[in-house]
């Protein structure tokens, strides 16, 4: 199979030296890529700039991703050639529009007009005590995946914080149907540590659990192979 994995996080630039990012390490994406490679699959890994990645491998291609726009470009290029997409990346929900000092904002009668401005400095001055940063929502990449390749096996991820299993499952199922995914791996930040990573792999009719990143990777690889074989009506990969 040809596998595409997104991993790590994106960084949305404020200026040439600053950006908004997240704490995603890409560790699970690295383990997933290694597990797919160990079972003789071809892997394309779209990895954030600081994401952990596997060692070089003849069946592995690593492409570094900076922001949401670069992720969308890479997805458009690769998805039509892919059998399975595992979308683990923590994609930025917002991207900067314009940053200015608080006094300018307070004096502006039409706040909406600030949304059409752009910073032209390579490095925005840090002399002001307070700055106001305007953000706009980024497009949901997962929502476009099945549009680009309706036959792809799509595994998405849903991360929540300190919720019940029932709420986690309900939210993951909503994402499953909304994005036409085959599986959603639901996890809660409070159950993730160096030695533990609890996850629920949710499909339309089944839920399977795992307790570590390695178990999650093995489960995803197994279910991807099963879904691919079933979809193609053959037992070989």
Can I get a quick summary?
GO terms for molecular function: ligase activity. This protein is an alpha/beta fold.
What does this molecule look like?
The chain has 237 residues and is of the alpha/beta class. It has 2 domains: 2-93 and 138-232, Rossmann fold (3-Layer(aba) Sandwich), CATH 3.40.50; 94-137, no CATH class. The chain is 30% helix and 27% strand. It contains 6 helices and 12 strands. The chain has helices at 27-38, 68-78, 102-107, 142-148, 165-178, 213-232, and strands at residues 2-7, 12-13, 19-20, 42-48, 60-65, 84-87, 94-101, 131-137, 153-160, 183-188, 199-202, 207-210. The strands form 3 sheets. It has an 8-stranded mixed beta sheet with strand order 5-4-1-6-9-10-11-12, sandwiched between helices. Helix 1 (27-38) packs across helix 6. The protein is elongated, with a radius of gyration of 20 Å. The model has no long low-confidence stretch (mean pLDDT 94).
């Amino acid at each position: 199979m040809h596998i595409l994995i997104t991993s790590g996080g994106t960084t949305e630039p404020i200026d040439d030296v600053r950006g908004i990012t997240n704490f995603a390490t890409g560790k699970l994406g690295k383990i997933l890529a290694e597990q797919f490679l160990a079972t003789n699959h071809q892997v394309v890994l779209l990895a954030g700039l600081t994401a952990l990645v596997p060692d070089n491998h003849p069946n592995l291609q690593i492409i570094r991703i900076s922001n949401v726009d670069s992720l969308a470009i890479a997805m458009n290029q690769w998805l039509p050639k892919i059998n399975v997409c595992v979308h683990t990346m923590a994609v930025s929900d917002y991207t900067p529009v314009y940053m200015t000092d608080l006094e300018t904002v307070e004096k502006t009668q039409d706040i909406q007009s600030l949304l059409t401005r752009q910073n032209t400095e390579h490095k925005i001055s840090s002399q002001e005590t307070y700055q106001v940063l305007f953000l706009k929502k980024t497009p949901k990449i997962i929502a476009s995946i099945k549009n680009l390749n309706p036959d792809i096996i799509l595994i998405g991820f849903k991360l929540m914080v300190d919720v019940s299993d029932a709420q986690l499952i309900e939210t993951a199922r909503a994402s499953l149907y909304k994005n036409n995914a085959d599986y959603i791996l639901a996890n809660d930040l409070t159950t993730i540590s160096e030695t533990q990573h609890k996850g629920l792999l949710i499909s339309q009719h089944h839920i399977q659990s795992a307790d570590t990143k390695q178990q999650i990777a093995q489960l995803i690889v197994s279910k991807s192979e099963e879904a691919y074989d079933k979809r193609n009506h053959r037992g070989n990969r």
